[in-house]
Amino acid sequence: MKTHRPHRKKQKTDIFSEFNLDKYEPVYVEPKEYTIITALDRVLDQVRLSELSDDFWTTVERPMAYLREHLELTNIQIVLLAIMVEEGEPVSWGGFGEFLGTSRLNTMCYSEDIEELVTKRWLIKGAAYERDSYWEGFKLEHGVVTTLRHNKPFVPEKLEVSNEQEFMDKLERHMSNKGRQDFNRENDETWMMQLVEANQHLALCQELQRYKDIHEKTLFLQIALDYAQYADSENEGLTLLTIDEIYPDDWECNCMRRALKNGTHTLMKAGLIEQKCEDGIANTELYVLTQKTKSELLSEYIPSRSQCLSTLRNNKSLKAFTEIKEKSLFYNSTEGDQIANLTGKLCKNSDVMPILFFNEADAIFNKRTNIGGLNPTVEKMENSTQNIILQEMENLDGILIATTNLTCNLDSAFDRRFLFKVQFKNPETDVKAKIWRTMLKRISESDALTLAKRYDFSGGQIENIARKQSIDYMLYGKETTLEDLDRYCKAELLDKGDARTTIGFKL
After folding, report:
1. pLDDT in tens, 286-323
2. pLDDT, tens digit (0-9, with 9 covering 90-100), for 54-96
3. What share of the chain is helix, strand, coil (3-state, %, to 5)?
4. How far apart are CA 112 and CA 120, in angstroms?
5. Could you say which of 57, 153, 389, 427 is the most buried, measured as most Cβ atoms within 10 Å of its Cβ?
6. Is residue 470 part of a domain?
7. Three-state secondary structure call for residue 128
């Protein structure tokens, strides 16, 4: 029997053939002098999957000593800082553990170091994406990386102020400059408490320190912020809806809401806030500072936007823009561009312009009928009415806006008279997910995204489902699951496939 030897590859004969280059690693040469960035880079290079072993601490002894001296941070804080600079986004406890090669629980042992960085305002809390969901995480405060890059330790914004004016201006500036994506109730409450503690020479801050509940303190500051923005206008007053958006749905905050509506809240008993009086009647869902608070605790403060009102008071027919509170609208990108273009053209060279708005316009702008049907008199009258409307549209010295879901029913004569036509399609998936989160406060981001992908609903349909959920919660006290929401969604659909509701008698 003939045997064959396995084929062998021909060995290389160059000068490297006797060496296994994989066994050799480049030798790190420490610089004569570190910078903050080079020292952090060295720490980062060695800490990955190190499990914070003794060998690791020995290897980074010199750059660690440099960073401790220049940053005044602990060893663990420096390690966490290096990881966060590298990641460039919020990092969860699990994210730290994955980087270090340890467990989530192990990294939580360093929570005191993290909390101290939050207190020093190097870090702020933020949701971190991990395993297809969002977890508690942390991110660097704005300006940290830039400062370190210039080889300087980070110094947070100075919170000490001289007077009430500077205090309120700083509060308004901080809260107004925050985008929606930066909003974090816990971070904002922490910052506001730091602002209060740093200014105990002010009577306002001394008064707030009398209260132990952080929600009570921040509620007062939120109402004071509303006063700063809408003072002396009909829109002054923090709404209960805004309070619902700010504070969590837990027992403590629910008690706060009930006390506000009943007029028994601690701040009300102290004479600091009150329900807004409108036409002699107290509005139980609007809350303002009392005159006592304005005259005693904010006597030296001039609301930043109140001056804008004085220039418009002579024109009683116009509503000052500062009196109009912002409301969130959700548009697709193309729709937003169309609206911006439309607004620019309509408002050009116009100081005061009347606006005539027709909702469900197909009911009045519908196609004219051929006279001769079952009711010729009625048909003639309807056609005459529409002819009048057509003529008045030509003569209107203002803006006419009409909305409809049935464009096919519009008469061509009406259609021609509209200069701009904007089609609002159902929102895109990411926008629908935002609407779900806006309508249902308890729904997670992943569940909202799932429903947005699964159902092509309008904002109105999503609102219907939210109302059904609220009704069920009030009746049965049951938290709504994703399965429940899915059932509501199926019930909202008019087209249920082969499932048809039988009308009449079933044989």
Report:
1. 999 999 999 999 988 988 754 344 433 444 444 444 44
2. 999 999 999 999 999 999 999 999 999 999 999 988 899 999 9
3. 50, 10, 40
4. 12
5. 427
6. yes
7. strand
Full residue range of the structural domain in which residue 478 is found: 429-492
- Tell me the three state secondary structure of residue 138: strand
In a domain, 325, yes or no: no
Number of helices and strands (H, E) in the chain? 24, 8
pTM value > 0.85: no
Per the structure, the count of domains in the chain is: 4
Q: What is the DSSP string of 355-391?
A: EEEESSGGGTSBPPPPS-SS-HHHHHHHHHHHHHHHH
The residue from 386, 416, 446 where one domain ends is 416
pLDDT tens column, 464-490: 888 888 887 788 777 778 888 888 888
Contacts of 80 (CB under 8 A, 6+ apart): 96, 110, 113, 114, 117
Tokens of 375: 């009711």
Bridge partners of residue 356, in order along the sequence: 400
CA nearest neighbour of 448 among 468, 460, 458, 434: 434
Q: Do residues 390 and 367 both lie within one domain?
A: yes
Same domain, 74 and 205: no
Cα 388 to the center of its chain, rounded Å: 48
Q: Which CA distances in Å does 386 have to 364, 391, 404? A: 7, 9, 17
d(CA 391, CA 250): 58
Q: Which two tokens stand for residue 6?
A: 């396995």
Beta bridge pairs of residue 277: 282
